[in-house]
Amino acid sequence: xxxxxxxxxxxxxxxxxxxxxxxxxxxxxxxCFEAHQAGEKAVKGLLSHLHKxxxxxxxxxxxxxxEVEVPSEVKECASFLDKHYIPSRYPDVFxxxxxxxxxxxxxxxxxxxxxxxxxRWVEGVVGGA
Length: 129
Hints:
Blueprint: H1 5-24, H2 28-49, H3 59-63, H4 72-82, H5 105-126
Helix pairs in contact: 1-2, 1-5, 2-5, 4-5
């Protein structure tokens, strides 16, 4: 399997940048989704570095395939971001209204912090890969 680590991490950084733009524009649900994408792609980059492939979108389950010690704060962030993968995008998750009616600035800030934490940890593990 060819390592695509750099590509995954570059795209994770791009998703994180998108999360920040959405945050600045007040599109908090979009910021949360993009933060999730950043975390997911960072971990898929780590898996690529380890010559593993895992499909799916749950950062928590992707991390279960990693053969290195995962810090508790990274696991907590994975779980937190996973909770925003679907509700941040689909109106039918809620009884009424759309995701934009539910997501707040604080939600977006927390999602972005978690994505940054996961990305920093992944980069620390893979080094200059």
